[in-house]
Specification:
globular, 368 residues, DNA_alkylation, Immunoglobulin-like, ARM-type_fold, five-stranded mixed β-sheet, alpha+beta, DNA alkylation repair protein, three-stranded antiparallel β-sheet
Length: 368
Amino acid sequence: MPDLMKNKYYHVDVLHELALRIKAVYPTFEAAAFIADIIDDIWDARKLKERMRRVTIYLGRYLPADYGRALAIMDQVIVRYPIGFHQNACACFPDYVEVYGQDVCNWDLSMAALERYTPYATAEFAVRPFIIHHEERMMRQMSIWAGHEDAFVRRLASEGCRPQLPWGQALPSFKKDPSPVLGILEQLKTDPSVHVRKSVANNLNDISKTHPDLVVTIAREWYGKHPYTDWIVKHGCRSLLKKGDRGALDIFGLSAVDCVDIIDFSLGASAVSIGESLPFSVCIEAKRAARLRLEYSIDYVKAGGKKSRKIFFISEISLKAGQRKRYDKTHSFADLSTRSHYPGTHSIALIIGGTQQDVLHFEVLAAK
């Protein structure tokens, strides 16, 4: 299994580098004591965000108590790191703003710092408490950021207000009423940056989980107007398409399952060991001309014995009446940093137009 992210981004060498960079611009910084306090007896057991927050807390203890002065030091440090969306080693910088900068008297300092830091380590998590406690004011700021010249900042405007951001604090008010988010998405729906467009799509997908009809309405209004927006709409409707939402399927001209016969759906083996791949085949025949969306699901056995379903895309294809299409696929059961596999009886199901069809069972065995 690849190294866990927490060990990649928060280990002694990374902390040592951070401490030295701080000391270079703030000579009285107690680098050795800073690191010694962070690496406690349960450091190895701490999760990624727990490690990040611990670094943040001790930054607050070892940097000047004056918030503005501390930010000035951090400003000099962060510019020595490379720019990038997922520089988790720098995530403590926007996290510092979240932890120490929420007082209203520090608002302008905090907003400016988040804008500066997000190109180095995305501030999408740090903005969420500001939204929760000062929704109208923060959403005005997000609207300003949506017009920023820097794509990293524009992405923050969308990603930061996602109602159900993975790993982030949920935004209950936007889950209930996402209307404050829609103006941000409208501003960014033709953004030239693919990173921004992906964020807009992910935001729409979040909204679709609680307000599917609203997202279908938006998708109808946006689709066919601009190539960038068409991609956003398709990606933003992915959960609806997986569920077979008829409104979403109709937007993209996707037919219902009754247009097709399943000629073959079979496994290449009855068992697979963890670390190996399972072959399977699908063959369909169109009863009449149709455009079809094909997916498959795996019901994974989890550590406690319960099952969790994950859906995977196969293809979208247009067929003439009587035309057949065959797919020979493999599915990997190698452990990932985001998924561990466990022995037990698993299931694979064929899904056409969001509707589950045949289900096959197989065994996952312990790694050889």
